[in-house]
Amino acid sequence: MSKVGVFIEIVDQAPGKSMPGLISAASRGGDVVGLLLDGLAEKYKGSLEEYGLTELINLSAPNRVLSKHPEAAGHALAGAVKTFGLTALLGVSSPTGNDLLARAAISLKSPLALDCIDINFKENYVKKSHFSGKTIATLEIKATPFVCGIRPNSFEAVQNQVTCRVTDHSALSVGDDTITIIGVESSGGQKDLTEASVIITGGRPIGSIENFKLLDDCAKTLGAAVGASRAAVDLDYAPHSMQVGLTGKIVSPKLYIGCGLSGSAQHFAGMKGSQVIVAINTDKEAPIFTKSDYGIIGDLFEVVPALTKALKTGPP
Question: pTM score, two decimals?
Answer without folding.
Answer: 0.80
